[in-house]
Write a structure and sequence with these properties.
The protein is mainly α and 159 residues long. Helix content is 64%, strand content 0%. It has a single domain, classed as AhpD-like, CATH 1.20.1290. It starts with 6 loop residues before the first helix and ends in an 8-residue tail after the last helix.
C-alpha cells in the first residue's frame, strides 16, 4: 500500500503549524513517557498503524520497558501502570472515543484527582494532537516504518 497524499507537500503551511503545535507539547507539563503512552493508546483505539508503529519506537528510544508497551492495550488489568498513568490513559480513551453525552463527570473527576488544571489542559491538548495525526495518517494511508530513518526511529531496534 502506498500513501494517497503527502499533506506536508500539498498543504505546507497548515502542516507546519500543526507540527509546531505538536512539537510544543514537548514543552508542556506532561512528561515524555506519559505522552508516549497517550500516543500509543489513542493510535491503538483509532487503528492507526503508522502512528502506533512510530510512537512505540519513540517510547522505546525514550527508555520505555518493552513489557509496558505490550500492556498499553490492557492497561486496566495490568499492574505495570501508576495511578497517574491510568488516569491519563482513561482520559485518552474518553476523548478519543467520545460518547454521545461527552466526557462523564466521573472521568473528569478521576483525571483531575491526578493532574493540576494546567496539566489537565496540557493532557487534553496531547490527546487532541495524536487524534489529529491519527486521522491524517489513516486518511492518507501513511505506511508504517516508512519514516523511520527520517525521524531516527531506526535507533529503537524494533525493525
Amino acid at each position: 500500500m502506498s500513501p494517497r497524499v503527502n499533506p506536508a507537500e500539498q498543504s505546507p503551511e497548515l502542516y507546519k503549524k500543526f507540527l509546531e503545535f505538536s512539537t510544543a507539547l514537548g514543552r508542556s507539563s506532561i512528561e515524555t513517557g506519559l505522552r508516549d503512552l497517550i500516543n500509543i493508546r489513542a493510535s491503538q483505539i483509532n487503528g492507526c498503524a503508522f502512528c502506533l508503529d512510530m510512537h512505540s519506537k519513540e517510547a522505546k528510544i525514550h527508555g520505555e520497558r518493552e513489557l509496558r508497551l505490550y500492556h498499553v492495550a490492557i492497561w486496566r488489568e495490568s499492574p505495570l501502570f501508576s495511578t497517574r498513568e491510568r488516569a491519563a490513559l482513561n482520559w485518552t480513551e474518553a476523548l478519543t472515543t467520545l460518547s454521545p453525552h461527552g466526557v462523564s463527570d466521573a472521568d473528569f473527576e478521576s483525571t483531575k484527582a491526578e493532574f493540576s488544571e494546567k496539566e489537565l489542559a496540557d493532557l487534553t491538548f496531547c490527546v487532541m494532537s495524536i487524534n489529529g495525526w491519527n486521522r491524517a495518517s489513516i486518511a492518507f494511508r501513511n505506511v508504517p516504518g516508512s519514516a523511520d530513518k527520517l525521524y531516527g526511529l531506526d535507533k529503537a531496534g524494533l525493525n
